[in-house]
Amino acid sequence: MTLPRKELFHLPEGVIYLDGNSLGPLPRSVAARVAGTVTDEWGDMLIRGWNDAEWADQPARVGNRIAGLIGAPEGSVTMGDTLSIKVYQALAAALAMRPDRRVVISDSGNFPTDLYMAEGLLRTLGRGHELRVVAPEEVDGAIGEEVAAVMLTEVDYRTGRRHDMSAITAKAHDAGAVMIWDLAHSAGAVPVDMTASNAEFAVGCTYKYLNGGPGAPAFIYVRPDLADSAEPALQGWFGHEAPFAFDIDYRPAPGVERMRVGTPPVIQMTALEEALMVWDGVDMDEVRSAAIALMERFITEVEARCPSLELASPRDPAKRGSQVSFRFSEGYAAMQALIARGVIGDFRAPDIMRFGFTPLYLGEDDVLAAVDVLADVLGNELWRDPAYQKRSRVT
Amino acid sequence: MTLPRKELFHLPEGVIYLDGNSLGPLPRSVAARVAGTVTDEWGDMLIRGWNDAEWADQPARVGNRIAGLIGAPEGSVTMGDTLSIKVYQALAAALAMRPDRRVVISDSGNFPTDLYMAEGLLRTLGRGHELRVVAPEEVDGAIGEEVAAVMLTEVDYRTGRRHDMSAITAKAHDAGAVMIWDLAHSAGAVPVDMTASNAEFAVGCTYKYLNGGPGAPAFIYVRPDLADSAEPALQGWFGHEAPFAFDIDYRPAPGVERMRVGTPPVIQMTALEEALMVWDGVDMDEVRSAAIALMERFITEVEARCPSLELASPRDPAKRGSQVSFRFSEGYAAMQALIARGVIGDFRAPDIMRFGFTPLYLGEDDVLAAVDVLADVLGNELWRDPAYQKRSRVT
């Protein structure tokens, strides 16, 4: 197979898209598939779609495709809700497995919502749990015998710094703690082997490197040996053993399906299911090699041509996900100027310009063209245009 | 305005749809709107859609449309997740408002997921809360000074029996309890006046009478005087005061927006937003009168022509939502036979045949034609066909 596979994506003319780490582009076949679900399934089948179009099984079916991309076995992943909800579920189940421990370790490189959800859960539990947020490099030293769970995002959303999943999981297990990985910036970006990692839980979103569309449903993985005993805090009817029996008492479904909650978002899930077709026949190792080649070329060119930018990502590609970040004091305005010229990355306060590298639809020519624009914006200080200084609500 | 407005809906030829209480049909304009969101917004705007297509504000915008249908003021309703999640949020916030009380009252006519989610929350709280599930007619007597919250679904999903919202809310308040209403079978079905009811919280789904499509997002209402102090248990980044500041500490957004959790499902939300256009200029009192006329005609005809069916719904239309249920021991097979002949209702164990009445797209001619088929199925025992006895996974 040859990368990139640009023909599978709808890529607007005149745009070089380096923001697939935030929202992946539209795979071409999704529009027709979604239209079919709206008109032929919802429209024509009406309520019968639950059986005839197999809506009820879709979260398990899509979960199996995700499992294939994160080194997890069939039946160990299910879909639904948002990443925030899945973090809450994983942490609640983890803490129920360690009733005598009261400490949760996370790091300041975690995505904020993971920390917010954890805080909310700990307050709801009301049993004196403590969320200890340490610097990413201090995680290892923070894991002791009092720790119930370690909850980390593998790849830092700002800098792309990548944790060593196997080493940290082993450390957590040595201390008797449960390990939860957030794979938001990993799934579809770097090779992940959940089975080899031996971690108990993983969660992730699907609208970044998996191109599932804005607000695509999240995933949750539960290690198979725990899936029949993990205790769901969010006991929804679609996680019931027999949702359509309408029993008054809750009995969790066997396996990871107990982590489903309410009615699945069928239209949104269909967009994701179709979007995942672009991974057919793709080897994650090949994607990773191609991404590293693109990133190395980008770094070399930027450092040669844009001396005002300072690399914020780890220089060693093995310690980095699939994005490269540079610091620049006028990064916000510079990013606006770039976007106005068709090179789309994004900005994270206070001074980080982020660029995502996604070999499914990006080639070396794109990288070189992007650097040309970046060098022009910086060399000629085009970011000084007042129009680029105005902050929009969402960056 | 004249009802029905069939021209606004995609109604498959040969089908009389009496299951809008389970999944509403497709409003015609939704397909084009969804296609536009997929191709013109996600496809062409990519990440810029959050600003340029105003995705970030959509839950508030859609919430305002729902508010208009449930007698709630602007800014008091927001959208997202599923009804199960919204039940959890409302109950958690309610219990935080009554820290010294330990009893939650619900009834056996509540939809099971509401009870499951409540149980899960109470176990997570671990503070000895008790969920007391009483018979619907015993709710009033069960509300005492020890009750923290009363959590009910206004209209029973099986029989259509309707609680007296104002009276029960007043009773709850007299006892010092917080009131939570589930409007899943009320919004778009019966006139609701949240402001007049004075209840603290309401939640609901949007894929039934609001025709939002399979898995459409849920809504939550918080009484305006409480919205700035209600404590979110599910502290997601989209409920943060400044989601895109990526602060490490959670600060709830002002008002009901704090009840947002993760990234909103933009495609699914767009389908709902467009679906709500069919309510433009519609008077809920007119809808209600038309629904009652259809239901009365249906009951009269069925009782005259199908003596083996026994009315399971309240005979007094004022005590009933917008559905009529009949008991029949062979109800499952009879419903399958009906569906095979294009009359779509549904079945709830052990013996309930449900029929929803939705005057936006149903007229008296539909009701009479449906009864003709029902009388044929029952009079000629067409349900005896073995094909109709086989249970499908989802009814």
From TrEMBL, chains A, B:
Entry's Gene Ontology cellular component terms: cytoplasm
Domain of life according to the entry: Bacteria
Keyword Protein transport attached: no
Alphabetical list of Pfam families matching this protein: KYNU_C (PF22580)
Swiss-Prot/TrEMBL catalytic activity: 3-hydroxy-L-kynurenine + H2O = 3-hydroxyanthranilate + L-alanine + H(+); L-kynurenine + H2O = anthranilate + L-alanine + H(+)
Pathway recorded for this protein: Cofactor biosynthesis; NAD(+) biosynthesis; quinolinate from L-kynurenine: step 2/3; Amino-acid degradation; L-kynurenine degradation; L-alanine and anthranilate from L-kynurenine: step 1/1
Cofactor(s) listed in the protein's UniProt record: pyridoxal 5'-phosphate
Chain sites annotated for binding pyridoxal 5'-phosphate: L83, S84, F111, P112, T113, D114, T153, D182, H185, Y207, W237, T263
List of residues that carry N6-(pyridoxal phosphate)lysine: K208
Keywords (A to Z) from UniProt: Hydrolase, Pyridine nucleotide biosynthesis, Pyridoxal phosphate
Annotated signal peptide: none
EC number, as in UniProt: 3.7.1.3
Any GO BP: anthranilate metabolic process
Function of the protein: Catalyzes the cleavage of L-kynurenine (L-Kyn) and L-3-hydroxykynurenine (L-3OHKyn) into anthranilic acid (AA) and 3-hydroxyanthranilic acid (3-OHAA), respectively.
UniProt-listed NCBIfam families: kynureninase
Subunit-level organization: Homodimer.
Protein name according to UniProt: Kynureninase
Species of origin: Roseivivax halodurans JCM 10272
UniProt lineage: Bacteria, Pseudomonadati, Pseudomonadota, Alphaproteobacteria, Rhodobacterales
